[in-house]
Amino acid sequence: MPLPDDRDAFEAAFRAAVAAVLPSATVEVVARTLVVIKLRVDLDADRFIDVFFNSRNRRADLSLIEGGKRVFGYDNLGDWHCHPGRSTGAARCVR
Fold first, then answer.
1. Disulfide: which of 4, 9, 10, 68 matches 53 by Cβ 3.0-4.6 Å?
2. SS3 67
3. Could you tell me how many helices (H) and strands (E) the chain has, helices first?
């Protein structure tokens, strides 16, 4: 599925995806500018998902945070890739 062209369309699509798989979760807007949106989904007291989208360059970043540290990340800087475990290095993800 291609990324939307604007911040509001990304937010709507993300909210729909969360509702489909985590129906009791809420999506919080952490930051919003004309071209950027940062969203957060609280999973429990120690874990959340942070999502960032920039409509100008269509950059998207998704991170699972646990205990204040990223335990998994997925972004499209350059090309889609993941950051498994607590590693800061990138690994090619299977599409």
1. 10
2. coil
3. 1, 6
Q: What is the amino acid identity at position 87?
A: S
Q: Cα separations (Å) of 58 from 27, 44, 68, 79, 80?
A: 20, 29, 26, 12, 12
Helices (H), 30-83: none
What is the model's pTM?
0.83
Contact 60, 3 (CB under 8 A): yes
Question: Does the pLDDT of residue 48 top 90, yes or no?
Answer: yes
Average pLDDT over residues 42-64: 94
Tokens of 70: 């990223």
Residues near 48 by beta carbon (within 8 Å), at least 6 away in sequence: 40, 41, 42, 64, 65
Listed in order, strand segments (DSSP E) in 14-75 are 27-32, 36-44, 47-54, 59-66, 69-75
Tokens of 71: 């335990």
